[in-house]
Amino acid sequence: MLDDLSSAVALDIVVVGGGIAGLASAYALQQAGHNVRVLEKTDGRQRITRNDDRGKGTGGIRSPPNMTRILDRWGMGQRLGDVAYKCGVVTLYEGCTGKLVGKIPLEQFAPQFGADLMFVQHGDLYEILYDFAIQAGVKVLFNTNVTGVDSGDVLVLDNKQRVDADVIIGADGPRSIVRRDIGGDEPERSQTGYLTLTLTVPTATLDADDELRCIWRDDDSQYRFWFGDGYCMHLASFRSGSQVSGTLVYPIDDNASSYNEGWSESYPLSHFKPDWEKFEPRLRKLLQQQERVTATVHFDNPDLESTLCDRSHVVLVGEAAYPALPSGQYKAAYAIEDALTLGLLFARITDRAQVPQVLCAYEEIRGTRSASIVPREKEKRRLLSLPHGPEQEQRDTMWKHPHPSGEKWVDLDIVASSRLSSHDIEVYMYDAADAVQDWWSTWGGLLDRHSPTKTGEKGPQSGVVISVSCDSKEDGCSFIREE
Ligand SMILES: Cc1cc2nc3c(=O)[nH]c(=O)nc-3n(C[C@H](O)[C@H](O)[C@H](O)COP(=O)(O)OP(=O)(O)OC[C@H]3O[C@@H](n4cnc5c(N)ncnc54)[C@H](O)[C@@H]3O)c2cc1C
């Protein structure tokens, strides 16, 4: 395995966006020996939930084994374990009747995965990454809104504030400004007609109701799916089992444009009109008890040809690179993999002039992985929310009898060979550090020998400039240079 080395040269790196991808990348790069600053447009308070009752409407993040392994590697395992909940069994029910369809004993495969599937609340994961990043020396600047990216001295801006950096990491989410710089004009996006509703319920509320208690306490499952007629609902435990987070994904016909793709807008449940007849009684009761739910609409975002800009000092990570579906289960995991990949590559820089080559390495390693994310998530959403009919019946039979021989989900090969779960297993088994190691053992020596400084070529121009508007006059603004 690659050691977590420290780079021979300390670069100035600016990360645009202080979400999960931004903080994780900042942490990994700072640990790799660089000086990292994060520019975040919000005041960050909405996500720091430690001092209140967490009624923020943010839901759950899945940390699949491929992500849990990285958090362990970074020494965050203990903190994660304190707030997250381990998934032992995945259980599937019929949405209309609540009848059991099947179960996968995920826990028994944990030794093969090398880690567990964990559920962690968005705010809790954010706090862990934020604390580690700050401790490592990352400077996070809140209320700092990046309004554009420019390549040198042709920048004309209202506020005239600019930031120099050796490398810019665009971690500014699905509506990324940095992405626009790389991909050209704002790309055409289209609504997919799907909506995700997210809710969080204290387990105590479920325990207080006989009908709801058995939804929760009747077996050892921590991850429950309801295959509805044209919808899918899943529930999981969070915050050491004291909370349950639910996600309902369903198609909406006409008014999708009145919702956005963020995570901050909540509505009374009565605002939505799913066909309640299609929900088994316990599920209906659980949903109808919620006063408010967070609504996030699904967009189709065009693919970028590259997550790198041709000036080769700007790169995208997380949802800025590949905006995934709000119902996607592994978005945070891909972002954490991006961060580890960057950290391991930038730890090996021996010369400032190697930046473009290292970013190309990142693009090569992550490009193949990211290309499949959105299509596979869409197929999964489709499979999970099939309307009643022959394909749905075939799916349910497959779930009951995953293997033609009639064998159950007792062997990882059987789980991996099933159409329903092959993608999940592939995600879980992927090791981002191994991918870097493979790349490095093939190309690392070449990169060093052919670094522009060693070959006498003129290295690329450093010093990309970002324009920012800074709402607060925090101390950390000292790196902003007035023109
Ligand atoms: C408040 C919040 C709550 C969420 N809750 C959930 C949830 O409950 N369940 C779930 O599955 N996913 C949730 N997500 C999405 C999830 O975090 C991401 O899908 C995944 O972790 C990848 O994150 P990201 O950092 O790439 O993108 P994001 O999480 O979208 O983070 C992007 C960051 O960039 C900042 N930013 C954007 N534009 C600029 C700019 N111009 N200048 C400076 N900063 C900028 C944003 O404020 C944000 O902090 C949430 C995201 C947010 C922001």
TrEMBL record:
This protein's record includes keyword Kinase: no
Domain FAD-binding, first and last residues per copy: 12-374
Single GO MF annotation: FAD binding
Basic and acidic residues compositional bias, start-end: 44-56
Pfam families associated with the record: FAD_binding_3
Annotated region described as Disordered, given as residue ranges: 44-63
Domain of life: Eukaryota
Keywords: FAD, Flavoprotein, Monooxygenase, Oxidoreductase
Family listed: Belongs to the paxM FAD-dependent monooxygenase family.
Protein name in UniProt: FAD-binding protein
Organism: Volvariella volvacea
